[in-house]
Amino acid sequence: MQFCPIQGFFSHLDITEIAKLLRSGDFSVKELVQHSLESIDKWDQQLNAFCHIDRRYALQQAEYADQLFAQGIDLGLLHGIPVAIKDNIQTLNLKTSMGSQFFKDFVPSEDADCVKKLKALGAIIIGKTNTNEFAYGPTGDCSFNGATKNPWDLTKISGGSSCGSAVAVAAGMVPIAIGTDTGGSIRIPASLTGVIGFKPSYSTLSMTGVYPLAKTLDHLGILVKTAEDIDIVLNALNNSLERKNLNFLDKMSVKLGWIPVESITDGYETSLYQKIQASIFQGFSDQIHVLENLSTDFIQIHQCFCTIQNSEAYAIHAERVKNDPSLFQPEVLQRLLRSKDTKGWEYINALQLREEYIQKFSALFQSYDFLLMPTLPIYATDLYQREITVSSRNIMVKDALLSLTSPWNLLGLPACSIPLMTDQGLPIGLQIICANNNENQLIHFISSVQSIIKKI
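C-alpha cells predicted for Amidase:
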C-alpha cells in the first residue's frame, strides 16, 4: 500500500509512539500541538478538513497538560494527544456549525459526552472538522463550509459525512479524529482516504451532545491508523469495556464469511471488486466461505434503512424545511423534501422488520466470527459528481457509496473499514463486520488482518 502523498507531522506516528515521545521528554505537549497546527497551516488550505480552530485555546490546553506532567500527574495514553472533533459534536466555547448556515454562529455552552471524556483524560481538542450539512450525505462536498478534498487526489471526493475527520488523520494533521456514522459516514471517507474508520455497536458510545441525523441509526465512531489506536480510544470513550493487549488471532481458527457485492447492489466496478476479492482470498484461502442467497434480505434491509432514515431525519428538520428552506444546501433540502412523503405506517413496519433482521444476522454469527466485504463498490469520484456510469448503467454516486455500509447501521452491528490496497493511485478499503457487542474481538482481528495485508 502506498503512502498518502500529503504527509503531516503525525503521518507515521501512532498514539503509543507519541505517548513515549512525550514521556521521554523528546516533545512537550505544547510542541506537539504546535506541530499539529503547523501541519494544518501547511495543508488545510488545500484540503479544507478543518472548519473551526481556536489556536489560543489549543495551546492553553497544551500548557495545562504540560503542567500536569511536571507535577507527576499522568492521565494515561491520551494525555497530551491532539484530537479533531467532527462539527456536529458539541464543544464548549468552540463553534459547532453542523456544516450548515442555520448554525454558522452557534457556540455550545457545554461539551458532548465524548468530548468531556477525552478532556478528562488529557486529550487536546485541536479543532472542528468539516461535515456534510447536518451529516446528511456521503460525499464530503456538500457543506456550508465548502468541500473537503481527498489528500490522495485533490480533484476527488473525500467521502462523508465525516469528511474532515478522515482527511485530518489521512494527511497526518492529527493522530485521532472523532466522527459519526449513520449510514457509513465514518467508513466511507476512511476507505477513500486510506485510514481506519470504526463504528462500534449501536449505543456503545454516548450520543449526548451530538446533533442527530436519524436517532436509531446514528453511531459515534473513531478514525485512526492502527488497531491499537482504536483500542485505546474506544476504551477511553467507554470505560466499561475491558482493554486487553492485542494478540494476533490464529487465522486458521477464525470462521469468515464473504458477502458478495452482487448480493447487495448491481452498481459496482467489476474490476475493482475482483481485485479486492482476489486479495482477501489470497490472504485467507480456505478460511473464508462465500455466503449465498442473501439478495432478497439486502433488498429489504435497504428499504428499511431508507424508510427509517427518511422519517427520522425529516422529524428533526421539519420546522426548518417549513420556515427557512433557503438556508439549506439545495441537495440536502431535496432529500428532506422527498423524506416528507414517508408515511407513519411505513416507519412502524420498517422498525418491526429491522428487529427480524437483527435476529437473523445474530443467528448468522453463530456460524461465522466475522463477515468481510468491500467498503465501497466504486472508486472515488470527481468532486460534485452525482452520477457515475458503471457496467453501462447510470447510478447515483450517493446510492453507490451507501450501498455496502448502511446495512450495518440498520442492524446496529460493529463495522470497520481498513485500508487494503491502492489502485489507480487511490486507497481501497476492506469492511469487516462482527456480532453485536463484540468490539474487542473485532479489534484483535483487525490487527491480524493488517499484518496479513502487509504480506500480500
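The first helix runs from residue 15 to 24.
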